[in-house]
Amino acid sequence: MKPTAALHEPLQLTEEVLTLRAWRMPDMVVYQHAPDEWWLTPLDDDLPIIRLNQVGVELLAALDGHVTVAALLERFGNRVCGPDGQSGRWHLERWPQPRYSLCYFGAQPPTTNQHGAKWDLLLQQVREGWSGNQGFEGEKHLSEFHLREITKRESHFDTIETTVSHLFREPSEVLQGLTYGRLLARRMRQLGWWGSRTQQILEVGGGLGYVAREIASELSPAERQGLRYLCLDITKPFLHSQLGLAREAGWNSGGMQANAEWLPLRDASIDLVIDNENLADMTPVQLQRDEVKSNRGHNPLHQEAVDWIRRMRLPLGNDLPAEFIFNLGPIRFLSELWRVLRPGGRAILVEFGIEDGWSAPVKLPGHTEYEVQYTHLRHAARWLGFKDEYYPLPKFLVIRPDTRVLCTGAAYTIQRICAGLGRSFPIRAYTEAELHHTLGDLVPKLLGCHYHEVSDPAWFGLWDFKVLLLEKPGGVSRPAFSETKGFRWYAHGR
Ligand SMILES: C[S@@+](CC[C@H](N)C(=O)[O-])C[C@H]1O[C@@H](n2cnc3c(N)ncnc32)[C@H](O)[C@@H]1O
After folding, report:
1. Where are the alpha helices (DSSP H) in 79-163?
2. pLDDT digits (tens, 9 = 90+) for 78-87
């Protein structure tokens, strides 16, 4: 869905607007294409790149919070600001709009804290425009989005949503020179998960398939012997990509298009489940307090959610809000995991989420995801009978919090600039050295490239991601090695 028509109208420079002061948005990347030509990228990719001449750059520089819109209009209003011929007035009427997000008009500065609260609000407005809705988007919205609206896989994880595993799909300084999938596989080796008992692996919601590819490259031939890698995804184009990469990587693999909330698999048929950044895509339910208090849901789906809460004796506290979002899909998924895992089987689930309070919607272009409420999810896991362990993702992967990476907003800007130049630029988590290596001669022409520590929420919110490790008790304990032709292959870390 695209922004509403109202957002396309240029801003009226009324008397009231003229009295406001103007600030350039922070963290802007500008590209100098020629001695008298600079490029700016509006936030909305559907808008063309803005090309400026020296006068346009002076207008940009003048947005310093000291001048009023009236003064800017008087100085630049009738002047041509770039090779495309638009006047200063044209730019002033558009740049403060959410779709452009290039400047801010206000009575007070645009930032009130180091993360720029008002800047975030503008971004939120843009996202709500993209998603065409506010707040909760209904129970079926996510499965329908995945089933019907994703028709091609190319660029999805660059433009619609990005994931930690996508940002780190190539070897990265942040991950000690490894990819995300390889590091995950190493951690699972340290946990003793690649022993002879692991034969049937199921990856749920594998996106483009990089985790499958990278796990394969980490495991030794002995560790991979006899393993089968099943991919299951609701989105057909992604499943094709997963199977392609899994087979290229040498997996004995198979795939099925299905909703993970109802796994089409036999009981006790799987040894290991990998579910990376998929839980927030599963069915949310917006429950009302009276439904929980009376144990009566307003419809069958709500009744199912209320029944789970009651059966699990989920402690929701005394200050239940009048309305709240409950992660029904992730709980259904857990109960399916319990069914399909063999005794002794394990699962690793990674997703962003919270431990206290109530799940909130997270707006992305075209769809809305929902934070995982991990206290509830862990309660459900234990109630089902799982043994669980729980870590913040960076801690699980042992990521140094102070490594600095290119701001994701800057990465998107550079991608657009590169597209304008006919070059490709994959969205990844670049350290400064990696950016120089990738862009070479372009770097000095990019003004304003900036870096955040990986722990800084302004970068990606990496510390919001959690790892839930589950084990279904009852496995027979066997030695941590397998034997081939008289040789013993141990499963412990390298
Ligand atoms: C945010 S993407 C994560 C992709 C990949 N694991 C990664 O880390 O880049 C979510 C993935 O889960 C899939 N998915 C979403 N809802 C699903 C569901 N209910 N059942 C199965 N797969 C689902 C999507 O098609 C997509 O492949």
Report:
1. 88-94, 117-131, 141-144, 156-159
2. 999 999 999 9
